[in-house]
Design goal:
- With 290 residues, the protein is an alpha+beta fold.
- Helices cover 52% and strands 22% of the residues.
- It is built from four helices and ten strands; from the N terminus they run H-H-H-E-E-H-E-E-E-E-E-E-E-E.
- The strands form three sheets. A four-stranded antiparallel sheet has the order 3-10-9-8, with helices on one face. A four-stranded antiparallel sheet has the order 4-5-6-7, with no helix packed on it.
- The protein is rod-shaped.
Length: 290
């Protein structure tokens, strides 16, 4: 009978032997997991505490900086008040000064706008006038071109020949209109004359002329040229023939051209170089006898 009962002291040993191994491993893993989570939570709390401390330090620094700024503002306000008191300025006067400054600024802006408008108007007027001047210049150039063409035509119309001294003459005019054209060329000084047949010399430019004989049938004449206190006879000269002679101090010859004859007078002109300086002869000069 006694062999059929189990000893109570042997029961725990049997329970421990009956617990599976994986349960133990599970308990150990759970314990390690909990320990790890606890450690991680501890580290998080430490980091949060450090961040909080850093934030507190920054907040305190910002608060200190704000206090300094407020102190500076208070100092500046005090200095402004002191300066205002020293200058004897009240709040109303300061406000009035600001108002005057704003008014002056607005007036300056208005003045600037007006000045810009005036500058724009001047520029527009200048552009218009420049265009007008350009047009005038073009017109003047056209006129000069036309004048040059007219002068060339005049030179073509006027003839050139050899004078009685064998010197190449300039252009020859054969009537009053051509004399005017010759004057317009400006190459020489021209003195037109109507010379009557008299016994006294007649002044023509810087010389004197004495018409002595007229042959209307053969278009010939004879005259005396008085220059440099000398009388030079030019005998039997024909109409339109350049009658040449020299005066002292001038290299180029003087020329006389008679283009019209009547029984009582001769019409023509005296042509002298631009550098001619001979003085008019005395009117009382007596021509030599034929």
């Amino acid at each position: 009978m006694s062999s059929s009962f189990t000893n109570p002291e042997d029961s725990p040993t049997m329970d421990q032997a009956a617990l599976p191994r994986w349960v133990k491993v599970l308990f150990v893993a759970a314990f390690l997991l909990v320990a790890g989570l606890a450690a991680e939570a501890y580290m998080e709390r430490q980091n949060l505490s450090q961040s909080q401390d850093e934030a507190n330090r920054k907040t305190q620094a910002l608060a200190a900086e704000l206090d300094k700024t407020n102190a500076r503002l208070a100092d500046l306000k005090g200095q402004v008040d002191v300066y205002s008191q020293k200058l004897g300025l009240t709040q109303d006067e300061l406000a009035r000064a600001r108002s005057l400054a704003q008014t002056a600024r607005k007036e300056q802006q208005k003045s600037d706008a007006t000045l810009r408008q005036q500058i724009g108007a001047v520029q527009a007027d200048t552009t218009t006038k420049f265009g007008q001047v350009s047009t005038q210049i073009n017109t003047t150039q056209s006129d000069l071109t036309a004048t040059k063409a007219d002068l060339e035509a005049t030179k073509t119309k006027l003839q050139s020949t050899i004078g009685d001294l064998g010197v190449q003459s300039g252009l020859i005019a054969k009537n009053h209109d051509e004399v005017e054209e010759l004057k317009a060329l400006g190459d020489r000084d021209i003195f037109e004359f109507t010379l009557p047949r008299t016994k006294k010399p007649q002044h023509v430019g810087p010389i004197a002329l004495l018409l002595r004989k007229i042959d209307t049938k053969h278009y010939r004449y004879t005259m005396n040229v008085i220059a440099d206190d000398k009388s030079i006879e030019k005998k039997d000269k024909t109409v339109d023939e350049p009658v040449q002679f020299y005066v002292s101090g001038v290299r180029a010859p003087y020329e006389i051209v008679v283009f019209g004859l009547s029984k009582k007078e001769a019409k023509g002109y005296l042509s002298t170089p631009k550098t001619a300086t001979a003085a008019p002869p005395a009117a009382s000069s007596t021509p030599p006898a034929n």
